[in-house]
């Protein structure tokens, strides 16, 4: 921490004065300044700092879903690989 803000070597991210107190730094303010999403519980005792959108997008662009086969609406087996080159929307759901 330098007067210029949060720094690594010569690269600094300026912080608002309200984000810095003696022996204390508001990491949520710092992370938000970098463009990362920040959420907390209602009573603010648990915080989560997410990856910035650019990082999430880069990770998703390089991913490829594994091939699988499921019956279509007429019961004909269809593989994801049969749709290569076409736009495909995959929706997933988990109860956890």
Structural write-up:
By secondary structure, the chain is α+β, with helices and mostly antiparallel strands. The protein has one domain (6-83). Helices cover 17% and strands 23% of the residues. It is built from two helices and eight strands. The strands form four sheets. A two-stranded antiparallel sheet has the order 1-2. Strand 5 and strand 6 form a beta hairpin. The longest helix is centred in the middle third of the chain and has 9 residues, at 53-61.
Which spans have pLDDT < 50 for at least 5 consecutive residues?
Answer: none
Q: Using the alpha-carbon principal axes, give the shape.
A: elongated
Order of strands side by side in the largest beta sheet?
1-2
Q: Helices and strands: which structural class? A: alpha+beta
What's the arrangement of secondary structure elements?
Elements: E1 6-8, E2 11-13, E3 20-21, E4 24-25, H1 27-33, E5 38-40, E6 47-49, H2 53-61, E7 69-71, E8 77-79
Antiparallel strand pairs: 1-2, 3-4, 5-6, 7-8
């Amino acid at each position: 921490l330098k007067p210029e803000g949060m720094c690594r070597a010569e690269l600094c991210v300026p912080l608002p004065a309200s984000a810095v107190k003696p022996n204390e730094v508001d990491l949520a303010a710092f992370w938000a300044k970098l463009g990362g999403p920040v959420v907390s519980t209602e009573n603010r005792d648990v915080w989560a700092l997410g990856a910035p959108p650019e990082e999430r997008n880069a990770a998703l662009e390089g991913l490829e879903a594994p091939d699988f086969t499921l019956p279509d609406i007429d019961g004909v087996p269809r593989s994801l690989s049969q749709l290569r080159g076409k736009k495909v929307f995959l929706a997933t759901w988990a109860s956890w």
